[in-house]
Amino acid sequence: MMQLCSPKRRLFFSKKEVDPDADPHGGDDFIEGGKRRCTDVLFLLAFIAFWVGMLACGGYGFTNGDPALLIMGTDYEGVLCDEKGTGVAGTGSGNVIDNSGLKTRYWANFLEVAAVARSAAVAATTPSFASSSYTLADAKSMCVSTCPQPSETAGQVTWFCDYPESNSYAAQLTKEAWKTKNGDVYSDLTDAEKVTSLQLKGPCYPVLIPSVNTYFSCNYYGNFSQSSFDAFTALSVSGTTGTNFLTDGTYSSFASLDGLVESINSQVTDYIAGPMERFQRYIDDFIVAKNVLGMAAGACLVLSLAWLVILRYFTSLFCWGTVIVVNLGSIAVTCYLALYSGLIGDDQISGIVDSTGLDSTELNASSWVDPASENEEVLKACTYVMAVFTVIFFIFTLLMVRRLKVAIACIKVSISAFSTVPSLIVFPLVPCVGMMLLFLYWVFAGVYLMSCGDQKIQTCVHPFESSESHGCGVETEWSRELQYMLLYHFFGFLWTTQFFIAVSYLVVAYVFAKFYWSGADKMGMTPLLTSMKRMPFYHSGSAAFGSFLIAVMQFVRVCMRVVMTGMKKIDRNGKVFAVVGYVIECCLWCCQKIIEFINRNAYIMIVIDGNSFCWSAFQALKLMIANVMSVAAINIVGDLLLFLAKLSISIGTAFLAFVMLNGDDYKEEISSPVLICSVIAIFAYSVAAVFMGIVEMGIDTTLLCYCRDMEKHNGTPQYAPEVLQKALGIAGEVQKAEEERKAAKAAAKAAKADNSE
């Protein structure tokens, strides 16, 4: 493994060494030898091969899938409305079901819809429901051209019946005849079929409630048709009358037809209309507040730039202020706990005795109990812990004084580089667009893949032709091969997302490294474009390697979470699985964060030295261990400052939007400002995170460049920018070293000239 990752072996394909000035992709003056080479090319080839498989999976899904199966749902035969397909239920299994022209979905048996609301009552009387989770998606639905309506003629009942392709009617009915009669073929049934229909077991069902087309689904509304209900219960065939479902015990708790209709309507509304209506209302709010959204977008940009200016000129004040506040705060908390627990001064009992005016004898004789006295030992323990923390942090501060100077200087250098290359502000748009396109492809291809499964009737109820005929919906069954394809597709999304992030790290780190080693004067006209060409060209293999490690860890975490969820379902009351799951999840999360930290610094070292991923990760760890105090200081101070910046920008933008939305122009026009302000806060935090993320990468790059410079030049960073030199008080040493280097270079040049003569 070390041979594979050693920079000496360059195990992966390397570019032919050329003149840096002649190579449009090479020639970094801070790289040893001035030449870059392609790194970890085998992993780049593996990544490309993986994406060939991703495209193959997507092509299979686009060719064989139909997302409408997942989005719109199917009828009880597993066939989409307005399409032709092969039936899966009853006698229709294997037959071609022609739903052409039938675009709307209709739940024919309204009692099945009521069963969703009254699942407990149904489970008590219908064993087929007892072992399943019954939802509206499981109820029997059919495709219609128009939503059926109750008969307006007294004494008559409108019926809606099963497809002729899926029911062995005694009369030979065609689908065209069925369509012509709008599904009402009750008169063509035999007496036996009419009897089961009067029992609400099919193949025909009475239309007793009006319905309306809502998003291509018939939604029950209005009042129960009393005349149709009376006509239905008055019908009699072979001694069997229409079932009075209000008195059969199952639905008697509804007490009235209106109560039953209300329950049915709420189920259909919640299933197809409720979320859409709320979504539409929220969309309307955003449309009304479009000016506020535009203002918020501009405000978060202005605040982000303002924070960069503040960090640039007041970094020292913020850093030292933060350290002082933390020290004083820890001292104050320690003293407060000591006073409260009685370690300093009087304890709580003495304080309360004094405040009540009673002496200790009277107080002891009473039934009064001081809660603080019961927690006195806990408070003392907390005091000791805080005291230890205060002392440790104070000692840490004394030891970190010089390192804090380095941290402050690194922050200033990174922000200076940011101002030198302002195009860094818009660079995050590039990976964001790439990831957005990836996400769109992944979602569409994934939906098509998921819809490639076989449509099969669920087995949670009896067959349709049985006396307990209830629909149970159609489920999509995925073969093992399709499941593997979905897992492959999911892992590809994780890997590619991390690949985009890795390449972004390399591009940004190159700009800051160039600023450190070459200075602002030698950055070139378009340093960002140069970086965007060089880093992907030379180091995409390393990005593929590092991103693969993180993607594997993320995939393991997701799989582990799925496994633990399944275990919890097996033992819902057990606490062991929950505790074990949390521990494993915590450990995996920590491992992922460690890998991300190593990767981030490995990418910086790849930029600095141009070596392969493994060797760069090793060098980065070695540098950080050798300079652990400086690394700790800059991580603590830098992360805290940048978090405060992101938080203040987010809150400030959301507060400004809230003030505007509560003005007279918007107060009466929107349903609630909470959602808009929440979205604005998240958006502002994301924008701030983009800015501060670049600064954070600049800080880390500057720190590693500084450590590498120290290592190369015996403790004196000869290439440190002027800001860093002044902060460390080493400007004189650097100047002296520079003069010595120039003198040595001139002497070597003169010696070479003498030898040539």
From TrEMBL:
Membrane topology, as annotated: Multi-pass membrane protein
InterPro entries named in the record: Choline_transptr-like (IPR007603)
Top-rank taxon: Eukaryota
Compartments (UniProt record): Cell membrane; Membrane
Keywords for the protein's UniProt record, in alphabetical order: Glycoprotein, Membrane, Transmembrane, Transmembrane helix
Single annotated GO MF: transmembrane transporter activity
Membrane-spanning ranges: 41-62, 292-310, 317-339, 378-399, 433-450, 486-517, 537-556, 576-595, 633-661, 673-695
GO cellular component, one term: plasma membrane
One Pfam assignment: Choline_transpo
Function recorded in the entry: Choline transporter.
PANTHER family: CHOLINE TRANSPORTER-LIKE (SLC FAMILY 44), CHOLINE TRANSPORTER-LIKE 2
Protein family membership: Belongs to the CTL (choline transporter-like) family.
Name this protein carries in UniProt: Choline transporter-like protein
